[in-house]
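As a warm-up, study this chain.
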Amino acid sequence: MFGPKDLPQAIQSKLIDALTKALDDPATRKRLIDLGGQIPDGARRTPQALQSLVESEVVRWAPVLKPQEAPAK
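Now compare it with the structure written out below.
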């Protein structure tokens, strides 16, 4: 889940709690897994873990997504 950079900590905490509750609900877990989703364990549900994941994915995919120079004619 993403939010604005300056999202107040109190709102972040409420969103994290609600997301954790939803992801721990057996019916929700089953539905997400049935749809092919992967549910991260509790340690990977923190804002810091998401930031780390995003940063590593940017490094991983930036070379693929970087526009290539057109060959000289």
